[in-house]
Structure formats: structure tokens, C-alpha cells
């Protein structure tokens, strides 16, 4: 870890509008900030303030209307759909509120899915997926289908899936929003490990103050504008 951490993502004057009823509605206005490599950032704010929109821009799921999103020197806002898909597959792991697992696939097969886009052969894919499932404590549930797993276990499969390609950036949209307090705590413990042990940069959207408390820093979105950074004194950044 370096004394002056690298910037993982730099947003420069980013704006985003949607067209509704023939009119452009601005959801994000002049968003300008850096996310340091190895950071664990929580994004909070009222419903409709643009948190998921911002997360989707950072993750390359959507494109801004204006501004630049610089990741490792590349402005991902300028990539075409195919290059953006390649960039996402190699760089970003996704964790969603409702897990988004394929119901007809086992846990192992779900985790293997992102590896279909890589050069790994079937045996290697299985080995990588099994390792990721071991890391999240599900070695004994690999052959279970999502409907045979609890919500917390399904989210752990989703974390293994986010991890299996070894991305630098993990984006999590309300990762504990569908879970009871105990399962939510276990998921937050896991995110903490991904950050501190594996050095993953994590950006997490959450409504839950208890979840946000686990992040190193918090930013609030309000009417499309971002607050200054609040450092969480109780969390220790992995790059410190
Ligand atoms: N594809 C879209 N087309 C039109 N409007 C959209 C689209 N996606 C989001 N919006 C609008 O943009 C605004 C911000 O939405 P977003 O989902 O980013 O908010 P949020 O802060 O994540 O909300 P929540 O906490 O309720 O999930 C909302 O007013 C929403 O209706």
C-alpha cells in the first residue's frame, strides 16, 4: 500500500439527464470527485436523489450526459458499448439488493457465469468459482439452487460472483436492503474483508446508517448534488 493512494475513479463535471414526457430532467448536476484506490465509500441520500444513477455511471452500466469518468486513465464515457462491456467484465464486480442470481443455475454455476467471457477452460472456471465460494463461506452449498438458500446465503453467492473475475472495483447497490440485521452484518463483514484483505475498492449505495458506518467515508447526494466527504473515524482505510 502506498502513502499517497492512487485515484481509482475520477468524475469530472459529470451530469446525467433523462427525457421524460419530451422534457430533459437533470438527475445529476456537475458531480466532481475522486475515489481513491482501496477506498470503501458509502453513497447515501433520499429516494430519487440519483444514487443508483451515479453508481451505474461509475460501473459503466450507463453513460453520462456530460463530463468525464476516468478510470485508470480511460474516459469510460467515450467507450462504445462493446468496449464498455469488455471494460466492465474485467474491472467491475456487481452486488445488487435482490442478488440477481439465475434461478435455474446452482450456486457454483452462477459464480462461474462471469468467467464465460474469459479464456479459462471449464475446469479452471470451476476451480475459480469454487475458490470464490469458499472465500464467502459457502463451500458446502455450491450445488444448491438459489431457492434452496437463505437471503444472506444468496447474497454471499452474489459476492462470490462479483469477486471471481478479480475486479479492482466492487459496486454494491443496497447490498443489505433485503436482509435481516444478522445477515446484513455478515454481508458487511464480508465486504470489509474484500476491502482490507483483498484491497478491493468498494462503492456502496445504502439507506442504512449501520451499513454506511462500515465504510471509510460517506457522501450524501441531495437533489443531484454531492456533499463533501465525511470521513468515518471508526473505520480504517486499507491504504492508510
Ligand atoms: N431510465 C430512467 N428514465 C427516466 N428517469 C429515470 C431513469 N432512471 C432513473 N430515473 C429517475 O432519476 C431519478 C434518480 O433515480 P435513482 O434510481 O438514481 O435514485 P436513487 O437515489 O437511487 O433512489 P432509491 O433510493 O429510491 O433507489 C429518479 O427521479 C428516477 O425516477
UniProtKB/TrEMBL annotation:
One Pfam annotation reads ABC_tran
Q: Please name the CDD domains in this protein's record.
A: ABC_MJ0796_LolCDE_FtsE
Cell membrane found in the keyword field? yes
Q: Which SUPFAM superfamilies match?
A: P-loop containing nucleoside triphosphate hydrolases
| Keywords (A to Z) from UniProt | ATP-binding, Cell membrane, Membrane, Nucleotide-binding, Transport
Carries keyword Oxidoreductase?
Answer: no
Q: Which SMART domains match?
A: AAA
Location of the ABC transporter domain: 9-239
Q: Which Gene3D superfamilies match?
A: P-loop containing nucleotide triphosphate hydrolases
What is the superkingdom listed in this entry's lineage? Answer: Bacteria
Q: Which GO molecular function entries does the Swiss-Prot or TrEMBL record give?
A: ATP binding
Q: Kindly give the InterPro entries that the UniProt entry links to this protein.
A: AAA+_ATPase, ABC_transporter-like_ATP-bd, ABC_transporter-like_CS, ABC_transpr_LolD-like, MacB-like_ATP-bd, P-loop_NTPase
Q: Could you tell me what this protein is called?
A: ABC transporter ATP-binding protein
Amino acid at each position: 500500500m502506498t502513502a499517497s493512494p492512487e485515484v481509482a475513479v475520477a468524475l469530472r463535471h459529470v451530469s446525467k439527464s433523462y427525457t421524460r414526457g419530451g422534457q430533459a430532467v437533470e438527475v445529476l448536476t456537475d458531480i466532481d470527485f475522486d475515489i481513491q484506490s482501496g477506498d470503501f465509500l458509502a453513497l447515501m441520500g433520499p429516494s430519487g436523489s440519483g444514487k443508483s444513477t451515479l453508481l451505474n455511471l461509475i460501473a459503466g452500466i450507463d453513460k453520462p450526459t456530460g463530463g468525464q469518468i476516468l478510470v485508470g486513465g480511460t474516459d469510460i464515457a467515450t467507450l462504445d458499448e462493446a468496449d464498455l462491456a469488455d471494460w466492465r467484465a474485467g474491472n467491475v464486480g456487481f452486488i445488487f439488493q435482490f442478488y440477481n442470481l439465475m434461478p435455474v443455475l446452482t450456486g457454483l454455476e452462477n459464480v462461474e457465469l462471469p468467467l464465460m467471457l474469459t479464456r479459462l477452460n471449464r475446469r479452471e472456471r470451476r476451480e475459480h468459482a469454487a475458490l470464490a465460494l469458499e472465500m464467502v463461506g459457502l463451500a458446502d452449498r455450491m450445488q444448491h439452487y438459489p431457492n434452496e438458500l437463505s437471503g444472506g446465503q444468496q447474497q454471499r453467492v452474489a459476492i462470490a460472483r462479483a469477486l471471481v473475475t478479480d475486479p479492482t472495483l466492487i459496486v454494491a447497490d443496497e447490498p443489505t436492503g433485503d436482509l435481516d440485521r444478522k445477515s446484513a452484518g455478515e454481508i458487511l463483514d464480508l465486504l470489509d474483508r474484500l476491502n482490507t484483505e483483498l484491497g478491493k475498492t468498494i462503492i456502496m449505495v445504502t439507506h442504512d446508517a449501520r451499513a454506511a458506518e462500515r465504510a471509510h467515508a460517506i457522501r450524501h447526494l441531495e437533489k443531484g448534488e454531492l456533499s463533501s466527504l465525511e470521513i468515518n473515524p471508526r473505520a480504517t482505510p486499507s491504504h492508510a
